[in-house]
């Protein structure tokens, strides 16, 4: 029966960590049973390269050293792989325990527990229940978008990407070439900020509108990433939350609580209606129409016309 | 490898865990299986399967230089030379996962100040310990939305086990109702919700904090019946199989509906739009959506939902005539 991958990785890690001198591929093959069992030199080489990459993903610093005969050897030096001393008290440990449960994405959930386990091995205090310590709080970071993981890796490694993207009201997706800067989750949705190579400008993309696969392009990009990436501001303006004007509406008494919560002034008219002044930004017309006959727009004329236009489209249905 | 059964374990996560286990067990001779499993956040079965693998690992299988760790199923013993096990530095993904999550939780409005300070201190220490590996964590950020004042009251009511009175806005009906609720837990998934036993409907309900118009902590004790906590990771509102079906057709401008409404299916239409099928216990609540869509979409079924949106729009237009709206210039 084939030897499980975890056992093979574990053996390679222990060999590389245990040695004081670089070990050649040949020596490693002789020390690790799974490699000896590999069907050919080629199969072993492929397996070995993949395993080395996997261990590096786990944080192992593996050095490649050439000896005098030109033979390549590998080792993971103790001092470059050791966790520096870190002392956390019980409260801090509880806080990290809560944080480690937050990810709902397999790769990051695994990485967060892995981080906690490494800290645990280094003496992180236990004997607590993070939920007990924090009331009954359960923060969760949702990740439903398939594009998340490849984009996260591309941001980390500064690799340009290409993906098909469908703009909010476009019938078909279009390919976009992007230098990915940062990912941000806001109101449960993920956004990518980056440099759009075709448009020569910074753009924000919503991950749920990426169709198909995210492909990495060759090379790394070296352009400085701005310190402040304004994902949230950009998205808020899409959502019409940056209002620059105000509107006057009539609202039926008792209806439209969220409109009242946003209103800058409310005046009772006494005939079952109130008059409200509310911030007027992009998208307000669509929102007001949701309230049907409970809202009447008074001013400005442009908003009034937009709302009437939308109502007519529904009335014709 | 052909013919091997599907392996439920992730080899990467297991390797990572076993490397830490070796160090951890060294410091705790005779550690109890259940304690170690809890400290590592895994089941006892997972731990036992790790303990089956570890004695096969070492620096030389030929030289017999293998880890000497054994267990009787209850306790674990470690007999190795001391130098095989040191705590390992954090990988970039590990530092990112922990730091991004800790920073996100620390920004939750309404979080207790003591908890926030502990998170910030822990974050700073982990950043230092991670060194360069912490760099990539600046590429990800997460904001949880919450109403700080409401959050703090709910949090206090949960820890003091007291009932809450709220005025709550229901968008489906566009109405604010008063309820008494026994809070169970706070859940943040982008927005923050309180899961509670609602005394009015005698059922478990989730309430979004930014829809709480008013809140008071009552003197009565909270007494939610024992309920099994659901996994809320997928959707907070899970439609039941017997809920009525709604079919909506949208044009390209209405594709966002599929992003915001959990649905059973979304089929592409020739014009770049979608035909979306979803289920909801209360189709009337979708009248708002029908009104909002305007010319970007229409309700295909049920027909009475489409009718009610049409009626609402016509009634609304009458009001415009009433206050002197522009004359209807029907093409």
Folded structure, characterized:
The complex is a heterodimer of chains A (317) and B (331). The longest helix of chain A has 17 residues, at 41-57. Chain A has a 5-stranded antiparallel beta sheet with strand order 8-7-6-5-9. A 4-stranded antiparallel beta sheet of chain A has the order 11-12-10-13. Chain A has 4 domains: 5-81, Arc Repressor Mutant, subunit A (Orthogonal Bundle), CATH 1.10.10; 90-136; 148-238, SH3 type barrels; 245-316, no CATH class. Chain A has helices at 5-18, 25-31, 33-36, 41-57, 78-81, 90-99, 106-121, 130-133, 148-157, 231-238, 257-262, 284-289, 301-316; strands spanning 23-24, 63-66, 72-75, 134-139, 161-165, 174-186, 189-196, 201-206, 210-216, 245-252, 265-268, 273-280, 295-299. In chain A, a hairpin with a 4-residue loop joins β7 and β8. In chain A, α1 (5-18) crosses α4. By secondary structure, chain A is α+β, with helices and mostly antiparallel strands. Chain A starts with a helix and ends with a helix. With 331 residues, chain B is an alpha+beta fold. Chain B has 4 domains: 11-84, Winged helix-like DNA-binding domain superfamily/Winged helix DNA-binding domain (Arc Repressor Mutant, subunit A, Orthogonal Bundle), CATH 1.10.10.10; 92-139; 148-221, SH3 type barrels, CATH 2.30.30; 245-322, no CATH class. In chain B, 34% of the residues lie in helices and 26% in strands. Chain B is built from 9 helices and 15 strands. Chain B has helices at 11-26, 33-39, 44-53, 92-106, 113-130, 148-160, 256-260, 287-293, 303-322; strands at 31-32, 58-60, 65-66, 69-71, 75-78, 140-143, 162-170, 175-189, 191-198, 203-208, 212-221, 245-250, 265-268, 274-279, 297-301. In chain B, strands 10-9-8-7-11 form a 5-stranded antiparallel beta sheet. A 4-stranded antiparallel beta sheet of chain B has the order 13-14-12-15. In chain B, strands 1-5-4 form a 3-stranded antiparallel beta sheet. The longest helix of chain B has 20 residues, at 303-322. Chain B is elongated. The model of chain B is unreliable at 1-7 and 323-331 (pLDDT under 50). Classes of the chains: A alpha+beta (317), B alpha+beta (331). At the A-B interface, α1, α4, α5, α6 and α7 of A face α1, α2, β2, α4 and α5 of B.
């Amino acid at each position: 029966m084939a030897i499980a991958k975890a056992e093979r990785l574990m053996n390679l890690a222990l060999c590389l960590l245990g040695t004081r001198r670089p070990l050649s591929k040949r020596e490693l093959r002789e020390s690790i049973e799974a490699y000896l069992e590999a069907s050919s030199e080629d199969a072993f080489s492929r397996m070995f390269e993949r395993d080395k990459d996997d261990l590096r993903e786990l944080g192992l610093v593996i050095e490649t050293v050439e000896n005098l005969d030109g033979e390549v050897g590998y080792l993971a030096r103790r001092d470059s792989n050791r966790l520096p001393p870190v002392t956390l008290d019980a409260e801090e440990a509880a806080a990290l325990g809560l944080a480690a449960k937050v990810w709902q994405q397999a790769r990051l959930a695994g990485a967060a527990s892995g981080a906690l386990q490494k800290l645990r091995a280094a003496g992180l205090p236990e004997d607590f229940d993070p939920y007990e310590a924090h009331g009954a709080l359960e923060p969760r970071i949702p990740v439903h978008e398939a594009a998340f993981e490849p984009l996260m890796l591309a941001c980390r490694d500064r690799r340009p990407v290409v993906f098909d993207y469908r703009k909010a009201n476009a019938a078909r997706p279009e390919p976009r070439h992007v230098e990915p800067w940062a990912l941000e989750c806001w109101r449960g949705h993920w956004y990518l900020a980056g440099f759009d190579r075709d448009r020569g400008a910074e753009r924000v993309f919503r991950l749920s509108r990426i169709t198909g696969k995210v492909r990495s392009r060759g090379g790394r990009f070296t352009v400085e990433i701005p310190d402040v990436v304004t994902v949230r501001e950009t998205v808020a303006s899409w959502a019409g939350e940056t209002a620059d004007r105000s509107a006057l509406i009539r609202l039926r008494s008792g209806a439209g609580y969220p409109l009242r919560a946003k209103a800058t002034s409310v005046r009772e008219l006494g005939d079952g209606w109130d008059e409200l002044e509310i911030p007027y930004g992009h998208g307000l017309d669509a929102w007001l129409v949701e309230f049907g006959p409970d809202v009447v727009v008074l001013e400005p004329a442009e908003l009034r016309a937009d709302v009437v236009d939308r109502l007519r489209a529904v009335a014709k249905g | 490898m052909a013919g091997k059964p599907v392996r439920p374990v992730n080899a990467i996560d297991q390797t990572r865990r076993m490397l830490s286990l070796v160090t951890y067990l060294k410091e705790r001779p005779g550690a109890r299986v259940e304690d170690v499993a809890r400290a590592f956040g895994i089941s006892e079965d997972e731990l036992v399967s790790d303990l089956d693998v570890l004695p096969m690992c070492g620096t030389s299988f030929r030289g017999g230089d293998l880890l000497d760790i054994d267990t009787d199923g209850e306790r674990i013993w470690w007999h190795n030379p001391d130098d095989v096990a040191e705590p390992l530095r954090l990988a970039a993904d590990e530092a990112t996962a922990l730091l991004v999550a800790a920073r996100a939780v620390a920004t939750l409005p309404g979080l207790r100040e003591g908890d926030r300070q502990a998170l910030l201190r822990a974050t700073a220490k982990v950043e230092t310990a991670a060194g360069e590996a912490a760099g990539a964590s600046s590429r990800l950020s997460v904001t949880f939305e919450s109403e700080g004042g409401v959050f703090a009251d709910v949090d206090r009511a949960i820890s003091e086990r007291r009932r809450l009175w709220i005025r709550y806005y229901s968008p489906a009906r566009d109405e604010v109702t008063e309820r008494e609720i026994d809070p169970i837990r706070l859940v943040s998934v982008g927005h923050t919700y309180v899961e509670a036993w609602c005394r009015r409907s005698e059922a478990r309900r989730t309430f979004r904090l930014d829809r709480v118009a008013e809140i008071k902590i009552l003197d009565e004790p909270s007494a939610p019946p024992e309920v099994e906590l659901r996994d809320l990771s997928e959707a907070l509102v899970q439609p039941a199989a017997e809920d009525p079906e709604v079919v909506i057709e949208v044009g390209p401008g209405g594709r966002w509906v599929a992003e915001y409404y959990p649905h059973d299916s979304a089929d592409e239409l020739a014009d770049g739009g979608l035909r979306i099928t979803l289920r909801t216990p209360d189709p009337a609540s979708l009248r708002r959506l029908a009104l909002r869509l305007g010319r970007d979409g229409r309700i295909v079924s049920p027909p009475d939902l489409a009718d009610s949106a049409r009626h609402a729009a016509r009634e609304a237009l009458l009001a415009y005539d009433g206050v002197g709206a522009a004359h209807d210039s029907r093409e």
